[in-house]
Specification:
This protein is mostly helical. About 65% of the residues lie in helices and about 5% in strands. It contains 27 helices and 5 strands. This is PCI domain-containing protein.
Length: about 450
């Protein structure tokens, strides 16, 4: 997994095009490292100029960076206000040539797409979507649904992306039920259909619908369709072929979405099972070992290692991704909540210092978050400010007995050891301990942790 900003920037320039490239470059143009900010800005200006596209990012981000940090005389033309005025004139001329004012009756899909993208890069998302909805080509083209799905991700309107599913399924269903049409279900339509499916997966992840993301991945990777030349095209064919998959998002982002959705929603027992499943192994990339190690840090209850890996291997990737960056901090908080849930389901008291050391989280941040966790989960715990420990407010003799078993030395390493040795059977053991108390409810969170 490439984590160095300069290397990631080079990969972005190499792998992405269109509005996705411009959005990604806008993130790097805000880098505190001047050389990276300048390179991103120059690449963006070159690309926009080559397509006669104007964008708010030019005046808001790219040109100020050039003015401030770039002294290369080759780039001096960008500092001249006439360059931007000339770009606007060229865009207006291009719009006129494409007959943009008469897009309702446009019969050339490529012309229509170009006009729509001109609006998208100008952040005129509503106008772009209105063009799609009003076009006479809308019901006939999966390509316009793909643009809508892209707009949803760019705009943060993930429901717009997800809602394309019904439209494309209707399109394919009609094609497959019509023998004549089926004979002309061309390759580009099938490829577009699968690209939209993966955009929907990515949007579901960004919307934090993790269970839905997992289910969609499981369903989509099984799909294949026959083209009019009798060739069978599968979703994995498209995902694994960078050229056919397109350059709006990449395979790495789909894999990240699936793996972190699994990590956030599954119990340790389920994670162990997932590691052997076809869906997990069928579309992994060179980072497979990194993801496996992440899973195993939870299945072995080694949460300190989990957060170290997040910091060292995944945090840089996420923060340098213009889309994942938006949800990364909340995702990390959910993972910390998952670790808190484990501890507080097994103890009646634990020191903040010990939790801080074991989870590799700064103590003041930990105290604040655990207080929020206790409130959110409505747990009967409170924080003793003087002793700097979390205590259960109410507990009975059975819980005292459990505490003697698990905290005889007041060291949670004993608990961790037991978790590592007996994760699968932990739930059954807990039931045996309290078998003599038929009216007592199981410890909160125990079932959720051990599956």
């Amino acid at each position: 997994m490439i984590n160095q900003p300069s290397e990631v920037l080079n990969k972005i320039i190499e792998n992405y095009t269109g509005v996705s490239l411009i959005e990604r470059l806008s993130l790097f143009a805000k880098s505190p490292e001047p050389s990276i900010a300048v390179k991103a800005s120059i690449e963006a200006l070159k690309y926009l100029s080559s397509h006669s596209w104007n964008s708010p990012h030019i005046e808001e981000i790219f040109l100020p960076i050039i003015e401030r940090f770039d002294n290369d005389p080759i780039h001096s033309k960008y500092k001249n206000i006439q360059w931007l005025e000339h770009l606007r004139v060229r865009q207006a001329r291009k719009s006129e040539e494409l007959n943009a004012d008469n897009f309702y009756h446009e019969s050339d899909i490529d012309n229509l797409k170009e006009v729509i993208y001109m609006n998208v890069v100008n952040k005129q998302f509503t106008d772009a979507q209105n063009m799609i909805n009003s076009s006479s080509l809308n019901s006939k083209s999966l390509q316009l649904s793909e643009i809508s799905a892209q707009i949803g991700i760019l705009q943060g309107n993930y429901s717009l992306t997800i809602n394309q599913d019904k439209k494309i399924e209707s399109f394919i269903s009609s094609a497959l039920s019509n023998e004549i049409y089926n004979k002309r279900l061309i390759k580009v339509e099938i490829e577009t259909y699968f690209r939209i499916k993966f955009l929907i997966i990515f949007a579901s992840f960004l919307k934090k619908e993790y269970d839905e993301t997992i289910q969609l991945c499981s369903d989509v990777i099984k799909l294949s369709l026959k083209a009019n030349d009798d060739n069978i095209i599968s979703s994995l064919d498209i995902l694994n072929d960078a050229e056919r998959f397109g350059s709006f998002i990449t395979k790495d982002e789909i894999i990240f979405s699936y793996n972190f959705s699994v990590l956030l929603t599954q119990t340790p027992v389920q994670l162990n099972q997932t590691l052997t499943e076809k869906v997990f192994n069928s579309f992994q990339n060179s980072d497979l070992d990194a993801y496996k190690s992440l899973f195993q840090s939870i299945t072995t209850a080694n949460f300190k290692q989990l957060f170290i890996q997040l910091d060292e291997r995944f945090d840089p990737f996420a923060k340098l991704n213009v889309f994942i960056k938006k949800v990364w901090e909340s995702l990390r908080l959910e993972l910390r909540y998952k670790s808190y849930e484990l501890y507080f389901s097994l103890v009646i008291k634990v020191s903040a210092e010990h939790l801080s050391n074991k989870l590799n989280i700064e103590i003041n941040q930990l105290i604040k978050e655990v207080k929020g966790f206790i409130k959110d989960k409505e747990l009967e715990f409170f924080f003793d400010e003087q002793e700097n420990i979390f205590l259960k407010a109410k507990y009975d003799k059975h819980e005292v007995f459990l505490n003697k078993l698990t905290a005889a030395t007041e060291n949670i390493e004993i608990i961790e050891s037991k978790i590592k040795d007996s994760l699968i059977s932990a739930n059954e053991k807990a039931k045996n301990i309290f078998a003599d108390s038929s009216q007592r409810k199981p410890l909160a969170g125990l079932k959720g942790i051990f599956g």
